Q: What sequence folds into this?
């Protein structure tokens, strides 16, 4: 992403994208505007789908996707937009927001954005399938003759083993301490 670099007005280093666009405060501002508009459109579409009264499972998926998007818009996007404004128009006495700050925060936003996009993608696929659940094939598992221990049993067995080992170490430490005391008193 960073081919050429030059110093921006507030001392941060601006770079260019692979397609030649300069990565600066305006770039991040535009990125935020585009993704905000996309999320708001997805929410409106999902709410229209909800109005068509799909099955309850579909309604749940729609509500989850819209809820995640709404939280993302109201919290992370709002904070990101505030950081962009502080970068573009720094205020004396306040910490300077650098391009690295914007890049780092945008990375956090992108992670949640990808999760939210996945939710809307699930809703879209469900809608294309006339609100019928899309079966996910699970790979066949090979049967084994040995009985499998549950994770809880394994954890308990591991915890018991650790307790026994700790008791043995304590017993050995006590024995050594007693031996040292008796040898120390005899000398």
A:
């Amino acid at each position: 992403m960073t081919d050429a670099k030059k110093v921006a007005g507030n001392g941060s280093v601006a770079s260019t994208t692979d397609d030649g666009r300069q990565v600066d405060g305006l770039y991040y501002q535009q990125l935020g505007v585009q993704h905000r508009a996309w999320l708001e459109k997805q929410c409106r579409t999902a709410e229209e789908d909800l109005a068509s009264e799909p099955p309850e499972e579909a309604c749940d998926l729609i509500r989850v996707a819209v809820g995640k998007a709404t939280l993302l818009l109201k919290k992370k996007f709002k904070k990101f937009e505030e950081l962009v404004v502080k970068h573009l128009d720094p205020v004396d006495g306040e910490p300077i927001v650098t391009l690295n700050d914007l890049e780092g925060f945008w990375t956090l936003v992108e992670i949640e954005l990808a999760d939210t996009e996945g939710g809307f993608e699930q809703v879209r696929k469900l809608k294309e399938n006339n609100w019928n659940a899309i079966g996910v094939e699970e790979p066949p598992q090979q049967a084994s003759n040995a009985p499998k221990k549950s994770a809880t049993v394994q954890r308990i067995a591991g915890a018991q083993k650790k307790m026994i080992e700790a008791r043995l170490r304590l017993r050995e430490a006590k024995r050594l301490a007693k031996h040292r005391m008796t040898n120390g008193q005899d000398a």
Notes: The first strand starts at residue 5 and ends at 7. The chain has two domains: 5-128, 150-187. The chain is about 65% helix and 5% strand. Residues 1-7 have pLDDT under 50 and may be disordered.
